[in-house]
Design a protein that fits this description.
5-stranded parallel beta sheet, 35 helices, Rossmann fold, mainly alpha, 5% strand, elongated, 9 strands
Length: 697
């Protein structure tokens, strides 16, 4: 089954009759028999809008008529001729060719030739090339007004045709494609020249278009009413194409779409409650009303989906294709509003966020200024099937992480990670195909780090870390070896990322956050193996601490590795120690506070570190006017690193210094040391007061 051909269905055995046209065509053939029994010649017309199936009904009728020996058929396509003169000759050539091969039809052909020779402006059958349209019409007019020789030839032709009693059906399709002069000549042929005995006509046209063209002729003088009156005189039997009922159109569309999906190797839900059927009933049905419009629409889907297959959602692509094909201004507007309609987890945190969903009615109305309110409402509902920000109008303006996760999982156009693919008809150069991500992740445990696919994945993580992390998580492999390999890859990128800028720190946080999500999926045994394999280096050990280890055994193994490595952390004063070393010590304190505390106290006694510098370094800052001053003292962290009681006892004398008072401490080394002493004294005094309070009764 193809969608790119506009050829009519001919009703032959085995051909599709999804629109139930065969029965109507059979009725039309029976009607022709009745008309031929009651009149010498008549004109019938199949009338319907473009794309309604006129040509298919004609083709089906012709198939049935060719099985009937009582009829001869001539198919005359006037729009296929390059000028009016050749059209005149072609008409009678087709009429002559329709006659069966026998002695009497040969005589009829001679009579037709003689008749045409008389009315031809140059008096010969060899063709009327070079004669203008006016001369051709003039020849017709001469016969109509009584050219004696032409009338005599016509009478001979009429007598011969009557003697055969062989009905001939002349079929004229697509009359609405003709120019005004061409159309008028065809009608003169049918009305004046062609009304011969046993010659019947079956026309096919879109009435509105035909009246528009006919009204432009001199005969009608721009009057649509005169054009309509002329048609009524011309056509004896009017046969309107039955419009597609809503149930027919829906059944036809869904059956064709299901076949297209099957051809593409896809399984798509087209049930009553499916997203596509919802979009169809809300708005798509308003334009998909003829067989041609449905086939044209599906041809658009078929033409471009293969460029993005497996990289976008099929239903989203189908709905957006409808907008591109039938609602082009709205489609273009959506592209311009990318920043509003395409969202991600940055804009929609876990608790959700509010959007003004009500404004989309105004957006749609702006692209369809003459639309009825119901049409606008329907298109807004269509957009709601694609974009959570539009759907939020039904959820009190809120889009939550669950809604967004559903869009991301299906690779929907409403998610910023996938939006551009729908408008680029491919994966943009700054993106990485989900199919490649999935394939790489599924083999990562067996791939060499130098493999091109691994290198592309690393580049993607570095350049577009947030989007890459989201996709890696969605397309993750459930195999423990592949997950462990990914965590190791992330660890390598973390260690390599020594850039201490905010961008560098953001990358390292992304790598750690993503790694922690994967370690949560691993068993305790897999985690033990992973942690045991970490290199004994500051970066790797720090990465291990930030993987979000929850089980006691892996945490214990990691703490032991740090403990064994700790002797290599010393060598310079604490303030001069690299940033990663400071963070590793704090991470160690969170893993195993007693062991870390013992080591830090040792480092302050014989390792050259100062405990006031250690405690002060972790104090946060805040802005005070144009200055940055110290803020909160990290009591819990200092307890893990050194012990509050230990420090109060060690610095008992400085804590009694009368000059130690509350103030905004400067963000300097000395300011931090003073802030630590003040905080320690505050904690000491609070504890003393608590001890002096009488016990509760």
């Amino acid at each position: 089954m193809g969608f790119f051909s506009d050829d009519p269905v001919d009703g032959a055995d085995g051909s599709s009759d999804e629109l139930e046209r065969r029965e109507y065509s059979g009725h039309l053939v029976r009607l022709l028999g009745k008309v031929s029994a009651e009149s010498d010649s008549s004109v019938l017309a199949i009338i319907g809008p473009w794309g309604s199936g006129k040509s298919s009904i004609l083709a089906t009728c012709l198939t049935l008529l060719r099985e009937d020996e009582n009829w001869s058929v001539a198919e005359f396509n006037p729009w296929a001729y390059s000028d009016l003169d050749s059209m005149l000759l072609g008409f009678f050539s087709e009429l002559s060719a329709a006659l069966p091969e026998s002695e009497q039809p040969k005589e009829i052909r001679k009579k037709i030739g003689g008749f045409v020779e008389r009315i031809s402006p140059v008096g010969k059958l060899g063709g009327l090339v070079g004669i203008d349209a006016e001369s051709a019409l003039s020849a017709v007019a001469q016969w109509v007004t009584g050219d004696g020789s032409a009338s005599a030839e016509r009478r001979k032709l009429e007598e011969t045709l009557r003697s055969t009693a062989q009905p001939i059906l002349v079929v004229l399709d697509d009359l609405d494609r003709l120019s005004p002069a061409e159309l008028l000549l065809v009608f003169k042929l049918v009305r004046f020249l062609g009304r011969l005995p046993y010659v019947y006509y079956l026309l096919a046209y879109d009435e509105k278009t035909l009246i528009d063209v006919l009204s432009l002729t001199e005969l009608c003088g721009g009057s649509a009413d005169r054009a309509r009156d002329y048609l009524e005189k011309m056509v004896q039997v009017r046969l309107d194409i039955p419009p597609l009922r809503a149930v027919q159109a829906k059944r036809f569309l869904l059956s064709r779409l299901e076949q297209l999906a099957d051809d593409l190797g896809l399984t798509v839900d087209l049930g009553p409650d499916s997203r596509f059927v919802g979009a169809y009933e809300n708005g798509l049905s308003s334009r998909l009303v003829t067989p041609r419009s449905i086939n044209r629409y599906l041809a658009q889907v078929d033409a471009l989906y293969s460029a993005v297959r497996d990289e976008v959602d099929f239903v989203d692509f189908c709905v957006l294709t409808y907008l591109r094909t039938f609602e082009t201004p709205l489609y273009s507007m959506l592209f311009r509003l990318r920043s509003e309609v395409a969202i991600d987890t940055v804009r929609v945190p876990m608790h959700g966020v509010e959007f003004d969903g009500s404004r989309w009615a105004d957006v749609v109305a702006g692209t369809r200024p003459d639309s009825e309110p119901a049409d606008v409402e329907g298109l807004v509902a269509v957009l709601a099937t694609l974009f959570p920000v539009v759907a939020s109008m039904k959820s009190e303006g809120r889009v939550d992480s669950r809604m967004l996760a559903e869009v991301a999982a299906r690779r929907g156009v409403g998610h910023s990670d996938y939006f551009d693919r729908y408008f680029s008809f491919g994966v943009p150069g700054d993106d990485l195909a989900d199919s490649e991500i999935s394939e790489t992740l599924s083999q990562l445990g067996d791939l060499d780090p130098s493999d091109p696919s691994v290198r592309r994945l690393k580049v993607y993580l570095y350049v577009d870390r947030a989007r890459a992390a989201r996709k890696i998580w969605l397309r993750r492999s459930a195999d423990p070896d592949n997950m462990s390999a990914l965590v190791t890859l992330l660890g390598g990128m973390y260690v390599e990322g020594s850039d201490e800028s905010s961008e560098g720190a953001g990358r390292r946080r992304t790598y750690c956050d993503l790694a922690s999500r994967f370690t949560a999926e691993l068993s305790e045994g897999d985690l033990l193996s992973l942690v045991s394999g970490l290199d004994d280096a500051v970066g790797w050990l720090l990465f291990g601490c930030q993987m979000g280890l929850r089980d006691a055994s892996p945490r214990s193994v990691l703490a032991d590795k740090i403990n064994r490595f700790s002797s290599q952390l010393l060598g310079q004063g604490f303030l001069e120690t690299p940033l990663d070393v400071k963070h590793l010590v704090m991470a160690w304190a969170h893993l195993d506070a007693p062991a870390c505390r013992s080591w830090v106290r040792s480092a302050t006694s014989d390792g050259g570190w100062d405990d006031l510098d250690i405690a002060g370094w972790w104090i946060t800052t805040k802005e005070r006017g144009s200055e940055t001053v110290l803020d909160s003292f990290p009591e819990e962290d200092v307890e893990r690193l050194l012990g509050i009681d230990y420090l109060i006892e060690k610095y008992a004398e400085p804590l009694n210094d009368a000059g130690l008072e509350q103030r905004d401490f400067a963000n300097t080394a000395e300011g931090r040391r003073a802030a630590v002493l003040y905080s320690l004294r505050t904690l000491r005094d609070r504890r003393l007061r608590r001890e002096e309070e009488p016990p509760p009764v």
